[in-house]
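Appendix B. Chain record.
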Amino acid sequence: MPESSPIIVGLEIGTSKVCAVVGEASNPEDVNIIGLGQCPSHGVRKGEITDPKQAEADIRTALAEAEGMADVEIRSVHLGVTGSHIRGSTNRGVHPIASANREITEEDVQDVIKNARTISLPAHNYVIHAIRQHFLVDGQDGIVNPVGMFGSRLEVDMHVIHGNFNRLQTAIRTVKALQIEVEDIAFNGLAASLALLGRDQKECGALVVDMGGGTTDYVVYADGVIRHAGVLAVGGDHISNDLAIGLKVPLGRAEQLKVQYGAALMDESVRDQTIDITNDVGLRLKTLRLDNLRRIMSLRLEETFELVRRDVMEAGLYDFLRAGVYLCGGCARIPQVAALAEKVFQLPVFLARSGKVGGAKSALDQPEFATGIGLVKFGANKQPRSARKPLIQEVTDKFRLILGRR
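Structure tokens predicted for this chain:
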């Protein structure tokens, strides 16, 4: 790849870790990962920053590690966002064709898209993504480009992903406090899908489930575009909490047990096996049944998958998932998690592998780095923003327009 290829950085501030990924991209289809940094996360709960000062320190550490590996100076990032406040909804915009000959122009297309974006958002919400799906002309569905067609009524369906303005701004300002510019923000679920899915999977229809420490983000593709998105405020930390309560052990020990002995399915072969819990000097404190530990984990994971499945079915998109389900995030490391997901979804399930991306294999094969890699791809797909306002100002200006302020 040419040395002049632009440097793009993806930053994910997760509940369990902060991850920074540095990539070179001469074009959206030619991305090479050259740097990776990570740090255990503090001051973040359910995917949202609760202590900016603690989060700043962890972000600084992850960025410094990524800078050292890539041998570059990081000045800006594409920031991943998540949280229970983020919602996805599909809205239909309508625009009457006013020209005398009823020929649809590019201006008509822009007007109908603008109408579709102007949905009835909750107070204090900001549009993160507005994803165009398809056009309709006088009721004729499935139109990709209506310019040049004739009709009296133009419509478009758009999937709008939006979140609370103040909670999004907290993450942006925390990064900017480090003198790092935020080029753009992207929903973590969308970013993960960019890392995992190729064009064929998007066309066939696929579900991407990103299971992190504090949230589970998911997106549904059909006919090449995102048709649905959602966030569950449930993740790996909730599994650890369930284990702490069910096994009557401290939370830190529960996390260790999850990593060392955990699995997503209750195997009959472990029914009579036990685990000895010892103190710092090796004295046995208690004995636990391994099947109890795995049953607790399996029930929580099954419930999470079932909630996602139910939401996709209610959106009317379940039958579109011909390419199956793709898992990423830290919870994708749990043994037998794909088998459990197949049992719930009744579809083929695949563990994360970042496709069509070159570079550090240590990052490409790790499910917890999919979102960071996807943020780099998201940045590679964006037009140069040099002439645009800084994102923090852009978000503020748009929000003022929502409120009708000057």
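Further analysis of this model is presented in Appendix C.
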